[in-house]
Amino acid sequence: MKTITATKNGISINYEVRGKKSSFIRYDEANQQQQNKKSSNFFEMNTIQRNMYRRLFYGMEAFSVEEVKTMSKIDISKVTRDHSKAQKVVNKMKYEKYFNDYNKLLAVIFPHVKLDFYKDGQDVSLPSLKVLKISTVDIINKWVEEKLLPENFFNLNIANLAL
Description:
- This protein is mostly helical.
- The protein has two domains: 36 residues, no CATH class; 119 residues, no CATH class.
- It is built from seven helices and three strands; from the N terminus they run βββααααααα.
- It has a three-stranded antiparallel beta sheet with strand order 1-2-3, with no helix packed on it.
């Protein structure tokens, strides 16, 4: 049997069975890790990178009316599809950032319950990226991982593309 206690500093988990270690989960561990990170999350994009990022982040809204008129239906559907995928990735990032500690606590209390009902972040009202401290670099890294952006995204420039 285990006893779970919420204290002012964190969650205490005590086991009454011999051989099982008690544990303590601090509330502020995740916040401290974020604050200890260096401010290396700043990245200035060139025109090519900015256009690729805006295409994924804003979808068709990233293009002017004149640009949309010159695009084929196939191009429009590709932009829309990629934007949809990118937004799902961002929503999932926001969900995980916002509910991660809460879900860890629930997973300890209810180990046999599946806690991924709203993993895509679609059905839940979530704070902004700024409030959650999710940077542009974090988003780009996730999109590269999900293969929505090329692996060499940070090195893209006109000189590289001319080769």
